[in-house]
Design a protein that fits this description.
This protein is mainly beta. It has two helices and nine strands, in the order βαββαββββββ.
């Protein structure tokens, strides 16, 4: 499976992000990502030919080989795959290993939908940032431990992580949550 490694990186999404209502997968209105339940997302994956337990579909916009990070656009099959990651059952696919054994995604729309970025196997003490404004976050594979801190920040001057905003609470469970405007996160102990 292609998954992201969490090296120091720039998570540039590009200049244009869709901020309107959910868009259609592969320009087919029958695949709109509107439903937010596991059954609905998995049905949409099946209809679109997306395996939520397999590799990310190859309609992603950009892949950074050095950092192993995928960038995807709203309405793509890759966006549908990423939305399904909110609901995948950890026992149905291989255990993903990495420095922190946690995945974190950020999206341009509420409810972990639309365009976004996905960082798998996040490293501790690394600022991961996007030059696009993001409004929701997914913590995957496990919740935060009592000794871990997940800080969020946004652009200040020319520093994409320059203005600290807040930290996710200790023991925050895995899942999706909406956020104020963010550009950056950092996981640390």
């Amino acid at each position: 499976m292609y998954f992201l490694t969490g090296l120091t990186t720039l998570l540039a999404l590009g200049a244009s992000i869709v901020t309107a209502a959910p868009t259609a997968i592969a320009n087919d209105a029958s695949f709109e990502i509107v439903a937010r339940s596991a059954e609905d997302i998995f049905a949409k994956c099946k209809d679109a030919g997306v395996d939520p337990y397999g590799k990310i579909p190859e309609d992603w916009r950009e892949y950074n080989k050095t950092t192993n990070i995928y960038f995807f656009d709203a309405g793509s099959k890759a966006a549908l795959w990423a939305a399904a990651q909110v609901y995948t059952d950890e026992h149905k696919h291989e255990k993903r290993q990495g420095p922190a054994n946690i995945g974190i995604g950020m999206w341009a729309q509420d409810g972990c939908s639309g365009a976004g970025v996905w960082v798998d196997n996040v490293n501790y003490n690394v600022n991961y940032y996007s030059t696009t404004n993001l409004y929701s976050v997914l913590i995957k594979y496990r919740g935060l431990r009592s000794n871990e801190h997940l800080d969020f920040s946004r652009l200040s001057g020319s520093d994409w992580c320059g203005q600290y905003l807040y930290s996710a609470g200790q023991n925050t469970p895995a899942g999706c949550f909406n956020s104020q405007l963010i550009n950056c996160f950092r996981l640390w102990i």
